[in-house]
Amino acid sequence: MHIHILGICGTFMGSLAQLAKAQGHQVTGSDQNVYPPMSDQLEAAGIALTQGYDPSQLEPAPDLVVIGNALSRGNPAVEAVLDRGLPYTSGAQLLQEVVLPGRWVLAVAGTHGKTTTSSMLAWILEYAGLKPGYLIGGVPGNFGVSARLGETPFFVVEADEYDTAFFDKRSKFVHYRPRTVILNNLEFDHADIFADLAAIQTQFHHLIRTVPSTGRLILPHGEAALEETLEKGCWSNVERFGKEEALGYRLDQADGSSFTVLESGEPVAQVRWEQTGRHSVNNGMAALLAARHVGVTLADGAAALSEFVGVKRRMELRGEVGGVRVYDDFAHHPTAIATTLDGLRRKVGNGKILAIIEPRSNTMRLGSHKAALAGSTGCADEVIWYQPPGLNWSLDSVLSEAPVPATVTESLDDIIAKVASHKGEPLSVVVMSNGGFGGIHQKLLDALAE
Q: Residue 190: pLDDT above 90?
C-alpha cells in the first residue's frame, strides 16, 4: 500500500512513517519545512520527502493519505484530498489499524513525563529480553531512534491527549486500545483546544473506558484530578504508588539519584541512576509497575533503570566549557519548569543555576499559565526570559513577582553574551523550550569555547 503523510516531519508522524515502512508499505510524505533530525531519519529509511503542500504531490494518487493534526482546512493538499475524494485518515488511526492489531499496548499518558516514562518502560522491557516495539515523542538514549516495530506483542506508546486531526477532535490516545496504562499526572494544558481541566478529564475518561477489565491503570497517590476522573467510572485494576507508601519508594539521596523500591512496605530493589528529582523517581516507579504487569520483576526493572541513560532534550547535558554546564530541557509548563529546577537544585546544592526560558507553546502564547510562571523559577538563582516573536503578551508582567533576579530579552545574542561572561565560574545553565530556540545550546557552548 502507498501511504502518503502530510506533516511528516513531526516526531509522531515521522516515527509512524518509519514503522509503516518497516512493515513493507511504500511511504512518502511532505511538510512545510522538511528539517532535520527527522528528515535525516526519514531519508535514511528510504522515505521520499516533498517540501510544502502543493497538490501535485498527490499524483499519482496514493492508496491512503495520512493528515497530521497540525494541518487544517485551507491547506492546499488537504483541499485536494477532499475535492478528489481520496481515502484519508489520521496518524493515530493509522497506528491503531496498521501497527497495533494483536499487540499488548502499554500506554503512557499524563500532562508531564510521558516521553521520559515511555523511554524508561521500553528500556526495562528491552533489558528483560522482551524486545518491545515502541513509538515515543523523543529519542531514548538507550535506543537512539524514536520508534521501532519490535519482535514481540508488547508495544509501548507515548499516549498524547492532544486532538487527533481537524476531522477528529478526540484525543489521540483513545485510538490505542491499551491493556496497561500509566496515568502520570493531570493538569490544565493545551489551552488552544481545551476550555478547562474538566474538558481534559473527559478525554482521559474516554481513555479509561477503553481499558479491559483485565487491564491495569497505574498512577501516583494523591493526584486529585486523576482520582476525580476515575470517579466517573473505572472497570480495570488500579495500582497506586507513592513516596513511603506500602507500594512505592524511599529516597536514599535527596536529589532522587538513588531510591529504594518498596513492596508491602519492605525494600525489594534499589535504583542508582543519573536522573534527578522526585518527578524522575515517580516516572521510574510507574515504568517499573507497568513492566511488572507484563511479567518483569521489580528487581530486574530496577537493574534496567540503573542503566537508563535518559532522553534527548530532557535535562540533556549538551556540554561543559570553563566550568559552565549547559543543559537542554523540554519543559514548557510551570509545573515542569519547577520540578526540573528542583531536581537540579537538589543535585548541585548551593551551586549557581541560571534558567533560560522560552515560553513558546500554544498554551504559553495564550497566556493561560502566566500567573504561575514567576513562582515556578524559585529554585534558580537567576532567570532570563526570552520573549519569542508571536507571544501576544509581555513577559515584563512576570518580573514583578519574580522570586529571584530575572530579566526579559528579545535577543539571543544578549543571552549568549550573558552566559559567556560566566566562563571560568561553576554554573549550571538550563535552557527550557519545546522548540529549537535558534540553536542556542550550541551557540552558548561555542561562545564559551572562544
A: no
